[in-house]
Amino acid sequence: MGSFKEIVNTISNPTILFTSVVIIFPFVFPPSDWFEKWHRKLGLHHLWSKKAIIIAMIGMIAFFIYGLGDYNFQKIVLKPDNVPISGLIFLVVFFTWLSMYQAYKNDERLDAGQKPDEFYEAPNDKVLVWPDLVYVELISLIIMSAFLLVWSIGLPAPIEEPANPTESPNPAKAPWYFLGLQEMLVYFDPWMAGVVLPSLIIVGLMAMPFIDRNPENSGFYSFKRRRLAISLFMFGWLVLWVMLIIVGTVLRGPNWNFFGPFEYWDIHKLEALTNINLSEIVYIKWLNTGLPENILIREIWGILIIMGYFLILPPLLAKTALKDMYGRLGVVRYSVFIVLIITALTLPIKMYLRWIINLKYIISIPEYFFNF
Known about the structure:
Blueprint lengths: L1 H10 L2 H15 L4 H9 L8 H18 L3 H7 L5 H29 L17 H26 L24 H6 L5 H22 L15 H25 L26 H9 L8 H4 L1 H20 L3 H35 L6 E2 L4 E2 L1
Antiparallel strand pairs: 1-2
C-alpha cells in the first residue's frame, strides 16, 4: 500500500490538485450549455444520485480509516484543532450533494410539467410554529447540546503552555476557520489577503442571486434555471474558500512548505525559492539593467497589466464571450458582476504565477505600503 500513499501524496501537490479541480469543476457544475452537454455525455449528472452519495461516503470513511493507520496522517487529522476540518469535509460533501440532488429532482419535475418539491398550497399545507417547528428545534437543540458535551469531554482542548516569545511553533497556524486567509497571505499583501479579497468573495457570493436574477424560479432548488449563479457561487465557496482551508490544514507543514497527507513533516525540508517582483523580472532579468529610481517608471509594467485587466478586459468580454450575458444583465449588473468575478480570479492567477515563475508582486511599492 506504500505506492497508494505515494500516489495520494503526489496528487496532493497543490499544482496538480488545484489544476485538476479547476479543470474538472465546470464539468461537474456546468455554467453554460456547452459544459452541460459534456456534463450529461460524461455521465456526471449521476453524481447527484442517492447511489453516488452512498459510494462517496463509504469511500471517504474507508480512506480515513485506512489513513489512521499511518502515523503522519493520524497526527494531522486527530490533532484537536483539526478535528472540525475532518467533519467539515464530510458535511460539505453531503450538503452539496443534498442541495444538487434536490435541484436536479426539481428540474425533472418542472420539465415534466409538475410543481417543484418545495411547492405548498396555502392554507392546506401550512406548517404551524407550535408544535411543529418549535418541537423540531427543541429536539435539535437537545441533540446538539449532548453532542457538544460528549465532544468537549472526549477531546482534550488544545491548550498548550504559555506563549514563549523566544520559541515560535513550526508551523505557526491560525485557527482552522482563518487558514484560508493565511493561505492567501502567501500570495498577496496582508491588506489584500486579509481585507480586500475575503470581503469581495463574501460580497460576491451574497450578490450573485441578485445579479443573475430569475424571479420565476425563486423559493425552490433548481440548477438548470440558475446554472450560472450556482456554478459561480460553488466555485467561490468550494474552491476559493473551503479548499484553501483544507490545504492550509492538511498540506501545510513546517516552514509553511507543502507536504502530502502521508508525508513525514521534516522540519529540515527547504525549497529553494526566490520570489521576485515583476519589475525585477523586466529590468534585471530581461533588460539586464538595474531598477529605475523613479517609482512610476519602475512599476509601469505592473500598472499597465492591472489597468488592462480591470479596465480593458470587462468591456472586451462584453463584446465577445459574454455578449449574451451583457445583454441580459444590463450595464450596471454586468459591471458589478464582472468586477467581482475578475477580482476573485486574481487569487488562482496569482497562485499559478507564484508556482510557475516565483512571482511575488505584480506591483510593488513598499515605499507607500502598496503591493499587489
